[in-house]
Amino acid sequence: MQTNMNPSTHPAVTSSEWMRLPSRGQDPIFGLSRPWYYAAIKSGAIRSSCLRRPGALTGVRLVSVASVREYIEAHVENTRKVSP
């Protein structure tokens, strides 16, 4: 049994449609922080959902993994090196 498994390669993490925001530190898939996610959600760059019981003030914030991947893909830079 492995004890030091890399979370970003775990099937449950890489095949998820939605993921919960990290409580601290970085998320296991992209390595992005909670403040980054809230800024991206506020700007409309990624999709999110807040699950909460009726009448509750707080809930669980989930983000769409596909929308984060799309955001990253849209910001890929072509860094082709030119030979002298």
Strand order of the largest sheet: 1-3-2
According to DSSP, the number of beta strands is 3
In percent terms, what proportion of residues is strand?
5-15%
Round the Cα radius of gyration to an integer and report it: 16 Å
Compute the number of structural domains.
1
Largest beta-sheet characterization = 3 strands, antiparallel
**What would the average pLDDT be, to the nearest integer?**
84
Query: Could you list the spans in which at least 5 consecutive residues all have pLDDT below 50?
Result: 1-5
Helix and strand content put the structural class at: alpha+beta
Q: Would you list the SSEs in sequence order as H and E?
A: HEHEEH
State the helical fraction: 25-40%
Treating each run of at least 4 consecutive H or I residues as one helix, how many helices? Answer: 3
Distance between the termini: 51 Å
Shape: elongated
Please render the helix and strand layout as text.
Blueprint: H1 11-14, E1 18-20, H2 34-43, E2 48-51, E3 60-64, H3 65-74
Antiparallel strand pairs: 1-3, 2-3
Summarize the entry for a quick read.
With 84 residues, the protein is an alpha+beta fold.
